[in-house]
Amino acid sequence: MVVLVPIFLLTDYLRYKPVLVLQSLSYLSAWLLLIFGTDVLAMQFMEFFYGITMAARVAYSSYIFSLISPARYQRMASYSRSSVLMGVFTSSVLGQICVTVGKVPFATLNSISLGFMAFGLVLALFLKRPRRSLFFNRPREPVCNGASPSELDQMNPGKAKPPEGKAKWSLLAVCRDSTLVRMLMELGAIVRVPQLRLWSLWWVLNFTGYYLIIYYVHILWSEVNPTTDSSKVYNGGVDAASTLLGAITSFAAGFAKIRWALWSELVIGSVTVLQAGLVLLMYTTSNIWVCYVSLVLFRGFHQFLVPIATFQIASSLTKELCALVFGVNTFLATILKTIVTVVVADKRGLGLPVRSQFRVYFGYFTVLAVAYFSGAVYTAMRHCRQSRLQSIPLANELRSPTEMAEKRPSSEDDGITGVRD
């Protein structure tokens, strides 16, 4: 949570590739400490480097969207998410085979993981580095091939430039801070757009619940099926099955043809209520295989909506704002996840046992489902009323970004300059 904002700003200033290399180096450092560390302090440093690694994931999303046109966002969001999940699937399968068939100790698995991470670092060194980034490294003039200037400059034409008599430090501050200030002002306008608000809230709230389940489900499994024989522990196989299902659903989401602007709340609510039911099943059953299947389905449902949320957010914004919105959403989700962890699981809070924790998480997903279904009812009623009162197409607030693509700009759209028409 602490390093996310500095990493995000550094990502844009250094134009992505150095931060992606930093991510690989921090991941290597975390695994080296995990393998060779012998005390609690070493594990705390390991968690610190792991935090840098997780924070630098924002660089990956920003990098992808900086290289492609908005028309390809939905497919790219689907492909990138599927590739990540296929990586997890491959590692889970290899790990399960090593443990069950080869009787390989867990320490050896960590060494194998370290080797793959080193290979990932080599690949990161060969990534293409963009000539420009979204905030700091923007061209001042059109380039020779006819490309237009920064979209942010187009959003705010005619901005007065700072007086030349300013001191050097003041001029530098204006050059560096004015862009961020303008971005934050744009965020205030974005909050008023229903679709962006909905999917951003989903990103913050549902990712919080998702990671809480993922982090603590292994402890629940240890209570449901206590065993010291690692060859009879199938956690790797379950991770493989769940990520494979997630990869399939993520890939399928890239081809989904649904009027998301109208049906988003209903789809999100339906998926969330199914997840709530699966969480309920996890902590009430005494059968470990029921727990396994529940997690597979839980992760599959979540991964289906991730590329859709990514596309809905990215396609609605200018490229300058994409990375900022993803970064802010991740930052808020991390804060909420930290608060829930401290209150529910940490000994300084309630310190609940794992089954009681999952009971709280079930209530969390239930509340979210009720809220989403309430929003779906409100949207349906508003749409019906709109249809009765006039025969024109859906109101702008009920249109998805793709539906608005061919709509001419109007005076009503001028108030939100960071949103694509």
Question: SSE string, helix = H, strand = E?
Answer: HHHHHHHHHHHHHH
Compute the CA-based radius of gyration.
Answer: 23 Å
- Beta-strand residue fraction: under 5%
According to DSSP, the number of beta strands is 0
Supply the helix-strand structural class: mainly alpha
Cα shape: globular
Largest β-sheet summary:
none
Average pLDDT figure: 77
Helix content: over 70%
**How many helical stretches?**
14
Distance between the termini: 33 Å
The parts where pLDDT drops under 50 for at least 5 residues are: 141-160, 392-398, 400-417
Outline the structure in words:
This protein has 14 helices and no strands. 71% of the residues lie in helices and 0% in strands. By secondary structure, it is mostly helical. Helix 11 (260-284) runs antiparallel to helix 12 (288-314) and helix 11 runs antiparallel to helix 14 (354-389).
In summary, what is this structure?
The protein is mostly helical.
Helices and strands in order:
Layout: H1 4-13, H2 17-36, H3 40-55, H4 57-67, H5 73-100, H6 106-125, H7 151-155, H8 168-190, H9 194-224, H10 235-253, H11 260-284, H12 288-314, H13 319-345, H14 354-389
Helix pairs in contact: 1-3, 2-3, 2-4, 2-6, 4-13, 5-10, 5-12, 9-11, 9-12, 9-13, 9-14, 10-12, 11-12, 11-14
